[in-house]
Amino acid sequence: MSLEERKQQVIDDFSLYDEWLDKYAYLIDLGKNLAPFPEEQKTEDNQIKGCQSRVWLISELRDGCLYFQADSDAVITRGIISLLVGVYSGCTREEISADDFGFLEEIGLKENLSPTRANGLVSMVERIKEMAKNG
Amino acid sequence: MSVQALRAQFPILSRNVYGKPLVYLDNAASAQRPLSVVDLQRSLALEANGNIHRAVHALATEATSAFEDTRRSVQQFLHASAPEEIVFTSGATAAVNLLAFSFGEAFIHEGDEILVSVAEHHSNLVPWQLLCERKKAVLKVLDIHENGALRIETLQKSLSQHTKIVAISHISNVLGLINPVREIVRICHEKGIPVLVDGAQGVVHEAVDVQEMDCDFYVFSGHKLYAATGTGVLYGKRKWLDAMPPFMGGGEMIQSVKLSGSTFAPLPGKFEAGTQNFNGIPSLKPAIELVQAMRQDPEIQAEQQAIFDLVYRKLTEDARITLYGTDRAHKIPLFSFAVKGAHHEDLALILDKMGIALRSGQMCAEPLMDRLGVTGLLRASFAPYNTLEEAKYFAECLDKAIEMLV
Questions:
Q1: Which of B269, B290, B311 is the last residue of a domain?
Q2: Do B346 and A118 touch (CB under 8 A)?
Q3: According to the model, what pLDDT value does residue A117 have?
Q4: Which of B116, B136, B185, B381 is packed most tightly, with the most Cβ within 10 A?
Q5: Tell me, what's the pLDDT at A111?
Q6: How far apart, in whole angstroms, are the C-alpha atoms of residue B370 and residue B238?
Q7: B362 and B235 inside one domain
Q8: Alpha-carbon span A117 to A114, nearest angstrom
Q9: pLDDT in tens, A112-127
Q10: pLDDT digits (tens, 9 = 90+) for A51-91
């Protein structure tokens, strides 16, 4: 699937739920099923600041594409970051740099994008962009 | 007065969030404002907007009266011996910073000690850390028991000949426990050490008599007391305030300014530099009137007690939940807790979508979180306008949220 197709997939999945609580239940499900994260990578450097929960994100470059792994001690946050990992893993740096992350608004997570310290989605998006820029 | 009649004075309480009725349980962070407060601010802005203390014209005179009348209201509310002992600030944080700077300039030297507790809000901790850095002084810390109560029995030996001030909260914003401030003051005064009581939570829940408490300083914020945000009070005994230098310069804090030097206004003007919040400060008066009415109302008090009993039972009898601050005899309806296997942020996000506003995280008390061995907690803090129905709804929703997560 291309980046656009992966984003559309997430939008379609979210459109099944009208109620916020159902969206959260879906995110919790995603969070619980996120691939295990290597414990030794839970370092200060890999931690994203600005989140109420602790979030770790790492990336590696394979064949010109970035692949992300992430974890959090809060399960909804883990669900949100699993969306990001799923959508942006396999993208080239250029693809990520050119993306506006607008699909997060379409699925109704827009309000979580407010730059308050209570929610770290902005910090997660910033870190992914930073990784695309600096490798 | 019924709780419903009280709620009618707070229009925000009848709004919906995400299509559900708002249940506001973050009162310890900021309380809602009644119509009397909002109406006063509006009428002052529309009818009596003039800079206080300076001009001779009618608007300035009316604004000045509103401001100075409020000083007398606060004086009576705290039972201070004179209005000059009431200094207006922008909040409790500003009041502690003013004190730490000014008291520090006059009385703190290298090697001196300042004592706080491990349960202090950052606002009653960081200003003292900054002072210690400036003056090469030492910060000492009083610990708590497992039930959250202050280890008062260790106070005596925590004080030394170098201790210059003790800064302690009246009620912790996390544990919700009333500290034995009178006893603390008595012990400290035996050694001639002054005491600051941080009343940000205390003044909201307890009748405060600063002369009886005999504390040397008491601070609080208006916005937790149903008044406008950006308002606060530093009470200080005159003997201390007189001996302390100004914190900020400019505005009405002067007596005479010459290029060779300035002399300063008498109390309280010395500490009120710059244009004061003359729209916000007067709102303390109707807020205080409301607080006093609520305290004397048996119907409201009964509902508060019923809420306390229900929530305390729920949070202590449910095996999945750990409540912090369990010294029940000294507890106010402020409950910080952890749920096994569920992150506080997840719970807060889900409860928010059920209409319930509460606080999650470190609650500006990171050292206390470290002491308790948690990364954060969930906090429900009730005000007299909360109903027993809301408390029941909170307990039900908490169960649902836990089931979603665990």
A1: B290
A2: no
A3: 45
A4: B381
A5: 64
A6: 38
A7: no
A8: 9
A9: 544 454 457 778 888 9
A10: 778 899 999 999 999 999 999 999 988 998 999 999 999 99
**A28 part of contact set with chain B, CB < 8 Å:** yes
Pairing of strands B163-169, B195-198: parallel
Contacts of B344 in chain A (CB under 8 A): 52
Residue B180 shares a structural domain with residue B283: yes
Q: Is residue B389 part of a domain?
A: yes
A100 in Cβ contact with A40 (< 8 Å): no
**B129 lies in the same domain as B161:** yes
And the tokens for B248? 């900020």
The reply to whether B33 falls in a domain is no
Residues 74-113 of A with CB under 8 A from B: 74-77
Residue B388 domain boundaries: 3-25+297-401
Reported ipTM exceeds the 0.90 cut? no
Asked if the Cβ–Cβ distance from A52 to B350 is below 8 Å, we say no
Nearest-Cα residue of chain A relative to residue B362: A52
Q: B251 and B326 share a domain?
A: no
Q: Are residues B245 and B317 in the same domain?
A: no
Q: Which pLDDT does position B357 carry in this prediction?
A: 97
**Do B61 and B106 lie in a common domain?**
yes
Report the C-alpha gap between B397 and B85 in whole angstroms: 46
Instruction: State mean pLDDT over B383-393.
Output: 98
SS3 B87: strand
Task: Give contacts of B29 with chain A, Cβ < 8 Å.
Answer: none
Find the CATH number of the domain harbouring B174.
Answer: 3.40.640.10
Helix (H/G/I), strand (E/B), else coil: A71: strand
Same domain (yes/no): B286, B302 = no
Q: Evaluate whether the domain defined by A3-134 bears CATH number 3.65.10.10.
A: no
Q: Cα separations (Å) of B256 from A10, A33, B249, B263? A: 69, 71, 12, 5
Domain range list for chain A = 3-134
The alpha-helical segments, DSSP class H, found in B318-387 are: 344-353, 366-372
